[in-house]
Structures are given as structure tokens and as C-alpha cells.
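W.,

You were right to be curious about this one. When I first looked at the sequence I had no strong expectations either way, so I just let the prediction run and decided to look at it fresh. Below is the sequence, 142 residues in total, followed by the output.
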Amino acid sequence: MGTWGTNIFEDDTALQFFEGLSNENLSITELASHLDKVNHTQYDMEDFDLLMAGFREPSFALVVAEIIASSLGNPSDKYPSFPKLDLEQIKIEISPEVKLKALTAIKKIKETKGIHLTELWMESESFQEWKNYLDHLSQRIN
């Protein structure tokens, strides 16, 4: 497993999650549940279970945010060409509330110490580039 760039699609864990979504009949409710999980969890680096969840769950939420941005016609240049998701169907289901959930999750991931994913980026030389990526993702959803 590894990460080779600041875009969420440059991470093995996130790509595996994205590929797994192709096997499901996706609804916006299912996708938004990943945003809700991040928005409602108090992550703690001292709790091993929350430590691991603090990497996976925010990664999954960022994938969902990318799917939302792509459905709205604003895909990342790193958006995978496979598997094909029905972005038109997802777009129909996107409400202002879902967009707000995505924006809230992105902001929390970007600004909250104690989230393992965020802490890893804070320790890297690419922290500012990662934050810029998150800002750009938010703009593509807005």
C-alpha cells in the first residue's frame, strides 16, 4: 500500500475503495454515509481503532467527494477511467444537503488535528500541496 501524490486517487487504499464501489448499485444515501461517518466521528490518535479509522474513513470520504465533483461535471484530472460509475444517476440525486456534507467533511479532514490521514500529511513535505488539493476539491463541488 502506498501514496504517490496528494490527490486521493494517488493512494492505494482510496483506489481499492473506489474500485469496490463498482460492484454496488450506488445511491447517494450510501455514498453520503461515508461523509456522515467523518462528520460525526471524534478521531483520537491514542485509540488504535480510531487511529486506523482516521486514515480509512477520511480517505473514503474524499473519494466520495471526488465522485460528487465528477457527477457535477468537475472531475479531477486523476479521476480513474475504470470502473465506470453512473455519474448521471448520482448527479440526479445530489442535493444541496449532500454537497454541504461533502464540503463539511473536506474542511474537517483538512483542519482537524487527530485525524490520522491529516496528521500524516502534516508531517510530510507536501502538506501545503495536499491542502491546496482539498481547497480545489471543495471548489469543484461548490
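Here's what jumped out at me. The helical segments are 12-21, 28-40, 48-71, 87-93, 96-111, 116-122, 127-141. And, maybe more interesting for your project: The CA atoms of residues 118 and 124 lie 10 Å apart.

Coffee later to discuss?

I.
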